[in-house]
């Protein structure tokens, strides 16, 4: 299945994202719903993070997003309805059963996108060690590699040249590539920790060492990731440069 066909089926048919009116981006009723993968560990350590990202997507872009992420179980029907998946954890991640990995592998091969976010900011232990093990099982022919600074991911909506998150465990993203596109993107910086906001409007976690600018970068990166998940490299074309520059601040 071609990626465009996959996204069209998942979102009810996609119109051009460059349209100035937000409500017409994907049709009147279709919404992007991020699927949050459930697993045997602490799979939802930042319950308000994706909710806030969805709100920011609606405010900042032409994407009509759901109000919150939807919990999903790999291997169960309906995975194709969530073209953007999110996997997080705080601490070690138990191994996925092979049928669940096979279902996720098919989803990615058919055009799906997976964002992996280490809530514990770990490096070489905890979530980091176990998720690297699982990603190696998931796509053994596509090892994690650093995303180049010049990649279209960093200009899919905002022009970015640095990372954000609750912490800065690594100044880069890593990815697994399928057919020339980023199918899996991995951040060790706890993006959702920077996005998380309480019911009374207070940020749940401080961002260190960069403070509020680091939080804003995390939101901009989240927007870019969602835009890339939906349209991959369409903004790699120079015709979109004026639109991108107008969004830069």
From TrEMBL:
Record-annotated DUF4159 domain positions: 34-230
Top-level lineage group: Bacteria
Protein name: DUF4159 domain-containing protein
Annotated organism of origin: Anaeromyxobacter paludicola
């Amino acid at each position: 299945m071609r990626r465009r066909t996959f996204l069209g089926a998942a979102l009810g048919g996609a119109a051009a994202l460059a349209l100035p009116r937000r409500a017409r981006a994907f049709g009147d009723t279709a919404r992007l719903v991020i699927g949050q993968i459930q697993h045997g560990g602490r799979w939802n350590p930042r319950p308000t993070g994706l909710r806030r990202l969805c709100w920011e997507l609606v405010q900042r872009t032409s994407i009509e997003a759901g109000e919150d992420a939807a919990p999903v179980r790999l291997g169960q029907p309906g995975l194709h309805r969530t073209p953007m998946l999110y996997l997080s954890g705080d601490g070690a991640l138990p191994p996925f059963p092979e049928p669940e990995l096979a279902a996720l592998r098919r989803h990615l091969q058919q055009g799906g996108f997976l964002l992996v976010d280490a809530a514990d900011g770990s490096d070489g232990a905890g979530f980091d060690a176990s998720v690297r093990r699982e990603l190696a099982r998931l796509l053994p022919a596509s090892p994690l590699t650093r995303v180049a600074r010049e990649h279209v991911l960093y200009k899919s909506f905002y022009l970015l040249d640095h990372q954000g998150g609750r912490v800065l465990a690594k100044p880069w993203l890593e990815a697994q590539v399928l057919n020339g596109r980023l199918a899996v993107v991995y951040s060790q910086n706890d993006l959702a920790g920077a996005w998380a906001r309480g019911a009374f409007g207070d940020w749940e976690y401080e961002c260190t060492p960069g403070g509020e600018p680091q939080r804003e970068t995390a939101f901009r990166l989240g927007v870019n990731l969602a835009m890339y998940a939906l349209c991959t490299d369409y903004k790699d074309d120079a015709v979109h440069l004026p639109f991108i520059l107008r969004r830069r601040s």
